[in-house]
Amino acid sequence: MLMTSNSSDVAITIREKQLADEHMKDVELLLENMFKREEATLQLVIDRLYDIGSNNLINYRVKPRRLNRLMKWIARLTKPAFHYLAVRWSKKNCPKLIAQWLQTQVEFPKPALGSEVLDAYNSNPQAD
Q1: How many whole angstroms from its chain centre is CA 111?
Q2: Structure confidence at residue 128 (pLDDT)
Q3: 41: pLDDT confidence band, cut at 50, 70 and 90?
């Protein structure tokens, strides 16, 4: 005989899920607020990452010294355009991405679907 879970247990589980969703929305709003307040920090981080990344990429891909210098000069010229696009993209997408990553850090693996049903069936096998 298969047993179903109690409706109050289901209601508690649904309420806990709703509460967790509300808290994750709060986390995302807090991250959005942080990105707006700390825009200068975000800009500095993006600038530094661009400088490091462009130099490393040019040094790795371009071997002739004269061409290497030319490419670094071009990278410095394109920095403002990259900076504008990166800041805009980061303010729009990073809070959501960070909130999703943080949620994965606080979740535990879910049991296999139907494990309760299988356990109940295995404990009370029916004869055919």
Answers
A1: 23
A2: 46
A3: very high
pLDDT category at 114 given cuts 50, 70, 90 is low
Phi and psi torsions of 107, nearest 5°: -90, 150
Which H helix or E strand runs over 107? Answer: none
Q: What are phi and psi of 64, to 5 degrees?
A: -60, 135
C-alpha 125/C-alpha 109 separation (Å) is 28
Q: How far apart are CA 104 and CA 8, in angstroms?
A: 27
Q: Is 114 helix (H, G, I), strand (E, B) or coil?
A: coil
- CA neighbor of 62 nearest in space, from 54, 53, 71, 74: 71
CA within 13 Å, CB half, 24? 18
Token pair 């670094």: residue: 72
Count, residues in the chain: 128
**The predicted structure's pLDDT at residue 82:** 95
36, 91 in Cβ contact below 8 A?
yes
Residue 41 structure tokens: 């920090």
